[in-house]
Inverse folding.
């Protein structure tokens, strides 16, 4: 049994992959609590796809892919905020437009690259086993920025999410905080690219948070439970991927989905099974 | 430590000629009035008359197209924590994962400022506010598990914890049990001692005339403002409520009551 757990870790690429996945799993899960509570799942998914052109441009100019993705993600985050703030179109419409436009631009740019198919697969579904040391540092750095901000602005984010009217009476800069939250979401997505890729990041954002929501009625507890589920899914998924030889990002997401299903059915008091 | 201490000067509220509109449809137009500190005002009008809009403008949630609102003689925004707002219950997301004491603690956030964590004093104020509203035993309950009356008390407790100079309550008497209604009225008496200015929107015109100092009758425009017996005349009531209202033995009946809805 011990061997079963230790063997994969004797490979350096597995150690790095494991570390990256756990960091991303935890980060996505905590940010994901706000995604679940503020109904931003669609936005998270859209943002993930919308950073493709950033990655493609970075690739074409031989720059750092994560830097390109970060810039694109922040532009898209603020773009969605800008278009929906005017009130002339609804937020989900603004997301839909930007999402499709940016995705198309990304595909156009990527299709000019020769090794197109392989690169696109890595971007879409992640390549956790190809994580380098510098990727790890970047993941840890960006992740830390996001987590510290979430902790430092806990009160403010709680109020703008739960009670916008109170936020107004407290004279909180709601618009600024909302945009900041979009930017944090964008950074989280960028960090996740390596492990689960553009296509699956929405699941890592939503599934652990939604699972935790079924188990508690306090935001801090929800964040901790979600983080634990995120970490557990990452580790389990990676082992699964190592032994069964399947795509790692998908294995991680499937693990999280199974956890959700189990909790949905058997959660104390709220589970489907007990409610019958 | 008490609410009295937080009131350093007499608060008064001045509304001058305000225009508030949703997408070019004026919801309130040319409304002016003045509320001396410590006064208890009932805001009355038919559905869609702009009662909620008025409150939202008073807390700065809706922009003024024209006119101005002064609190203690200064425009909105200069008084971080002196206006508290108790929302209609329909406006709250009851599925949000917060407990009763979490919600009441939010009332202290205005005093805390950025990055600061609530301290012992905030905890004491929260405990006292819960006690005052008779819901101390529910402190750790998720808000989604409460009854309608209990939910209302949570937001009243939060308003208390804010130690406001001006308290706005949107339809606190709609859809709650008699004991919550009584608890709300007792809270109003308590606040009067503390010289807090209170504005309450209600459909209950009888309550408005019996338990409030002043009545503000609106229907997009200000129709009448003053003591109940001056405000409720057949002429003003017809102007506010149209033909739907009638006088039954000096009691006005209107055809309420679904909550006002705004985009």
């Amino acid at each position: 049994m011990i061997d079963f757990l230790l063997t994969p870790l004797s490979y350096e690429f597995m150690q790095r992959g494991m570390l990256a996945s756990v960091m991303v799993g935890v980060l996505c899960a905590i940010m994901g609590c706000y995604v679940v509570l503020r109904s931003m799942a669609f936005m998270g998914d859209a943002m993930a796809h919308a950073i493709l052109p950033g990655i493609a441009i970075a690739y074409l100019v031989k720059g750092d892919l994560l830097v390109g993705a970060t810039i694109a993600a922040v532009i898209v985050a603020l773009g969605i905020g800008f278009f929906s703030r005017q009130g002339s179109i609804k937020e989900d419409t603004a997301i839909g437009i930007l999402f499709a436009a940016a995705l198309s631009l990304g595909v156009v740019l990527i299709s000019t690259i020769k090794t197109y198919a392989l690169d696109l697969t890595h971007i879409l579904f992640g390549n956790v086993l190809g994580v380098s040391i510098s990727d790890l540092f970047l993941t840890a750095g960006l992740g830390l920025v996001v987590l510290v901000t979430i902790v430092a602005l806990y009160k403010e984010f709680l109020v703008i999410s739960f009670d916008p009217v109170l936020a107004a009476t407290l004279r909180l800069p709601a618009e600024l905080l909302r945009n900041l939250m979009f930017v944090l979401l964008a950074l989280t997505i960028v960090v996740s690219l390596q492990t689960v890729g553009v296509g699956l990041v929405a699941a890592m954002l939503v599934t652990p948070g939604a699972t935790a929501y079924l188990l508690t009625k306090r935001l801090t507890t929800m964040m901790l439970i979600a983080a634990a589920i995120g970490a557990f899914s990452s580790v389990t998924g990676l082992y699964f991927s190592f032994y069964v030889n399947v795509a790692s990002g998908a294995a991680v997401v499937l693990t999280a989905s199974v956890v959700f299903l189990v909790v949905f059915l058997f959660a104390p008091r709220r589970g489907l099974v007990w409610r019958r | 430590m008490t609410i009295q201490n937080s009131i350093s000067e007499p608060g008064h509220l001045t509304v001058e000629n305000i225009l508030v509109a949703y997408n070019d449809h004026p919801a309130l137009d040319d409304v002016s009035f003045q509320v001396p500190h410590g006064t208890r005002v009932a805001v009355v009008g038919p559905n869609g008359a702009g009662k909620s809009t008025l409150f939202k403008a008073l807390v700065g949630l809706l922009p003024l197209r024209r006119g101005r609102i002064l609190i203690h003689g200064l425009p909105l925004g200069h008084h971080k924590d002196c206006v508290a707002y108790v929302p209609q219950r329909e406006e709250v997301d009851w599925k949000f994962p917060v407990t009763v004491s979490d919600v009441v603690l939010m009332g202290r956030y205005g005093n805390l400022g950025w990055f600061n964590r609530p301290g012992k004093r905030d905890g004491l104020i929260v405990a006292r506010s819960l006690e005052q509203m008779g819901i101390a035993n529910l402190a750790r309950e998720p808000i989604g598990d409460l009854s309608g009356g209990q939910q209302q008390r949570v937001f009243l407790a939060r308003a208390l914890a804010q130690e406001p100079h001006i308290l706005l309550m949107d339809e606190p008497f709609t859809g709650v049990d008699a004991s919550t209604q009584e608890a709300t009225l007792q809270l109003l008496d308590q606040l009067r001692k503390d010289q807090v200015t209170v504005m309450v929107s209600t459909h209950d015109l009888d309550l408005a005339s019996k338990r409030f100092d002043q009545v503000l009758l609106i229907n997009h425009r200000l129709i009448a403002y003053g003591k109940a017996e001056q405000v409720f005349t057949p002429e003003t009531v017809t102007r506010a409520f149209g033909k739907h209202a009638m006088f039954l033995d000096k009691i006005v009946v209107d055809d309420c009551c679904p909550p006002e809805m705004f985009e």
Observations:
- Chain A has a mean pLDDT of 85.
- Chain A is about 80% helix and 0% strand.
